[in-house]
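Final report, Chapter 2: Outcomes

The project's central promise was a pipeline that accepts a single protein chain and returns its three-dimensional structure in a standardized token representation, suitable for archiving and comparison. That pipeline is now operational. To close this chapter, we reproduce one record exactly as it appears in the project archive, with the input sequence first and the structure output second.
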Amino acid sequence: MSEKLLLKGGRVLDPSQDLDGVRDILLADGMVAALGEQIDAPEDTRIIDCAGLFVTPGLIDVHVHLREPGGEHNETITSGARAAAAGGFTAVCAMPNTDPAMDDPASVGFVAAEGRRAQAARVYPVGCISVGRSGERLAPVGEMVVAGAVAITDDGSPVTNSLLMRLALEYAQSFGIPVADHPEDLSLSPSGQMNEGLVATRLGLKGKPNAMEDTHILRDIMLAELTGGHLHLQHVSTRFGVESIRQAKSRGVHVTAEASPHHLVLTEDAVDGYRTEAKMNPPLRAQTDVDAVRAGLADGTLDIIATDHAPHHYDEKEAAFEDAPNGIVGLETAVGIVLTRVVNEGVIDLATMVERMSCQPARAFGLPGGTLAEGSVGDVSVLDLDAQWTVDAAAFLSKSRNTPFAGWVLQGAPVHTIVGGKTVWEAAREDVREDAT
């Protein structure tokens, strides 16, 4: 049986209810039992003093790589779920580019079961679009949904076969799930290593032009418009891509899209010195693209902030730049990065951050949470906006350390993560204030 929790005196920020004010929240039996200005604690209730802290619906990351099965040296479902909780996330969606690929109900069920066993952040599997992520034959979507899949994608590989993408968008409508795509036309630069531009030229690295992403986004939007299916575009990083999504939404196309924290705050200059910790796909772009992604996040063109958490072992990332894998870890830095470099710089306000990191992810992927309304699931994130901390990769709960943010001084951090009314992580601070009756 879950513990009873009373979160006392925090500033509750819940865009789903247009709520911003000091409130108490009582959690019992895994649910939000009461929300009000003064709530008396029932017997055997743990009280957490949230005065001076922000209490939000549990943060949700719809794009993470947990690597299991097949890549347990980089991350496991358990380590990833615990890292997510330490980052303030109450739920994550696990990508299917595992080994073997998550393309059948057995593999989807395995990830769901391991996620429950971790007893940390919730883990929602995302099934493959195609069998083996080969881009040739539609995977058994209905069976995967029954096993727990909340979406389908071949993430890590773009769906280049337009007929297959059309079929996926049509078929997924029967199950009410989004079809997420990694937009990239590989034929334009099959061996590209970073953004095509002056930095790549100076470093002697083959570049990836924006058109690789832009042409694929346009193709996907056209197919979504044709089918009426729910298209979700992953890790959007280009100015043209943002504008294309903006125009598609104005026409009523059912498209949602995400921005990753690194594409909101870093440019291609971060790669200078052949820094493999800044090598990712899509690559870090030019400042004009970063500005466009930030504007798209602010005006709602980009609905979601998602980390694209991609753990890699130290030895793999220490290879020559051309040989090093793409990706960075992001679960334990996302809140601090977004608060420090997006919210505090005035790109969005705190309520919009919560909307993009909790409410909208829940809506877009049909997940529990995203609200603190009475009767909703008891998933809560508690944030301290005054906390200052330095990113120390050695302290991550993730098994991997590949981050370009090591040494950054950030302001704002999670201090309590509560899933189903149960505390799954809390900051190791001397001034954590709690009591019990």
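Archive annotation: The radius of gyration is 21 Å.
This record, like all others produced under the grant, will remain available to the consortium after the project formally closes.
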